[in-house]
Sequence to fold (343 residues):
Amino acid sequence: MTAQKIILNEMRNVSLTAYLQDAGGEFGFSRRPAMLVLPGGGYAMCSDREADPVASAYLKAGYQAFILRYTVKDKGLWPQPLEDYEQAMALIAENADQWHVDPTKVAVVGFSAGGHLAACAATIAEHRPAAAVLVYPAILKDIVDMCAPGMPYPHEHVTSDTCPCFLAAARDDRTVLIQNTLSMEIALADKGVAFESHIYSYGGHGFSTGDDWIITNSVCPRLPRWVPDSIEWLGEVMGKFTRNGFTEPIAALSMNADFAPVLSVECSLRHLRGQSDAAKAALAPMFAAIEAVAQARGFSVEGLMAAVGSNTAREILEMCQIPADMIRDIDQALHGMINQLEV
Fold:
């Protein structure tokens, strides 16, 4: 492994530290996923406790790891931190071959104020990450305005194009109240964006990875699990990183399947009913199963379809006990069909 510190802006003390592992040779892959770490610190500093320890966790999982020390208040105000992020992501993309990075699998993890920056990256940035991990993120007006004036409130900018998000926080956080994480969750849910959330019973603020040597207060014993859980979740949405490269993502289309380029069983029934005759033919087993349930329970077919319209085809097929291999065949058939968005 090699380490490089790249100065992005000397005047504002902005730097990108790159921890790079080999690929090729004994390894069975040529590219790795990458994680860009955004430490917290109220936009007044970039915490060391949320920098190298976090990078190390993702390095261990096979990622290339980058730490961005962005502009803080004594050097400049918003949108300079976001501009620093954009510059860092552009640099990673530009050097993807040299740094053995798959540019489609670059995620971001941010803490507190860094969590605010990561949430902005997920919602309004030009260079969107493939996924965002938000740890006790500052989201709401009170805490965001306290950090620095004129910054966006990320939950107000969530759209169907927001990348999948993983959230972790402690219920008893007195610095960044848990309502910040909950508000972000609700915004993601409202827009149909894939997310996973872990709210631990106690742990306060600033627990970083939750390791014993780094925490400054008592934490729930389950809290350190957020790190391996986030890595497993990233494997679901970006593809698991293995000796043979990346597996196929198992939840990628669930992030916004109704808006994906092609159809899949992760699309909602309501959306699929407006698609082509070929798509409806591929889904014939699902429609037959719904009709059978409606007949058995005395429901109208149209009424039952409306009631379960928000469910995905996969959920309905599984509820109707359609065999897994048949679901897989239906999914593959749908993948060959263009999604008609105006339905």
